[in-house]
Amino acid sequence: MKKMIAAAAVIFAAGTGSASATDLWEQSALNQVLQRGELQVCLEAGYMPFDMRNKKGDIVGFDVDIAKTMAKAMDVKLDLRNTAWDGIIPALLTGKCDLIISGMTINPERNLKVNFTDPYIVVGQTILLSPALKDKVKSYKDLNDEKYRITTKLGATSDYATKKYMSKAKLNLFETESEAALEVINGNADAFIYDLPYNAIYSSQNVGKVIHLDQSFTYEPLGMAVRKGDPDFLNFLNNYLAQIKGDGTYDKLYNKWFVSDAWIKTVQ
């Protein structure tokens, strides 16, 4: 009798496990994408060279090209949903998009709200400095002084990094990175803190107006964000990233946006 009960328990457990797996798949964003025939991606256009608008008004960039290759591999259409940064995670959580691909740094605070893929690129914070401070400031440590005025983007990881490493300085936060960086050129700030790729491009466009201290002082892996409780979608995304890194697709896109500067004339 005990053996029969045990056997029945195993069968019941297997049955409920199967039903649970079926429910998870039906609820998965991946299944919804396939059923809908469209991949909906949240991003914020304005972060060079990840997500930005070209002269025609189209959203382009490294993240965009990754999303395009992904949609093509899934045989679905791509819908890019431009979303303000402070509302981008809420937009994902309320189902306004399937995932976020927008140069988002993986950190504990965000990871409590969403799940991240494996990092698809690693960046760090660097400094755009006023030329007037060329011989006075050599690193972020030198800026940790109440006499200096620093700008960055509100809510970005640069916001938290500045508060952590340069807490003594006066910090002014802006809605966009372009507004914050312009403060240095206009003489209203001594330094702008932001991600290395953006600062490298910005300094090349404003030679003589800013100095780029290009030694990163933070480690920031960027990942795609999905809603929690969706192992199928996360599994697909991680395997897709591994695939494009192995077949040369990733290198091609990386060289296009980070090695070559040919694209810059299309966005100016």
TrEMBL record:
This is Transporter substrate-binding domain-containing protein. SMART domains: PBPb, PBPe. Residues 38-260 form the Ionotropic glutamate receptor C-terminal domain. Belongs to the bacterial solute-binding protein 3 family. InterPro entries: Iontro_rcpt_C, SBP_3_CS, Solute-binding_3/MltF_N. It is found in: Cell envelope. Residues 1-21 form the signal peptide. Residues 38-261 form the Solute-binding protein family 3/N-terminal domain. Its main location: other. The keyword Signal applies. SUPFAM superfamilies: Periplasmic binding protein-like II (SSF53850). Keywords: Signal. PANTHER family: GLUTAMINE-BINDING PERIPLASMIC PROTEIN, MEMBRANE-BOUND LYTIC MUREIN TRANSGLYCOSYLASE F. The keyword S-adenosyl-L-methionine does not apply.
